[in-house]
Amino acid sequence: MKVNVLVHEVAEGGYWAEVPSIPSCATQGETMEELLANIREAIAGCLSVALSGRNSPGNWNGMAGPFAG
Fold first, then answer.
1. Domain assignment of residue 23, given as a range
2. Are 63 and 57 in contact (CB under 8 A)?
């Protein structure tokens, strides 16, 4: 599955990222490598919650396949 990730640089140092198509899916990291590892973990966690029925993926924007609303 491919998703768009928006990466933002923090003025004080480090980065934060968000996945617009998955509500509340965001994380941060001091380095780009840490950020990428963290966003993969965040996406997996968000999808796990959605698949468990605790979040309505039908409300998600931009998703294709089984998560389409």
1. 6-56
2. yes
Sheet holding 6-9, edge to edge: 6-9, 15-18, 26-29
**Alpha-carbon gap, residue 8 to 19, rounded angstroms:** 12
Tens digit of pLDDT at every position of the chain (69 positions): 799 999 999 999 999 999 999 989 999 999 999 999 999 999 999 998 877 765 555 555 544 444 333
Q: Total domain count for the chain? A: 1
Q: What does pTM read for this prediction? A: 0.72
> Which of 29, 38, 33, 23 is CA-nearest to residue 8?
29
Element (H, E) at 26: strand 26-29
Number of alpha carbons in the 13 Å side-chain half-sphere of residue 4: 8
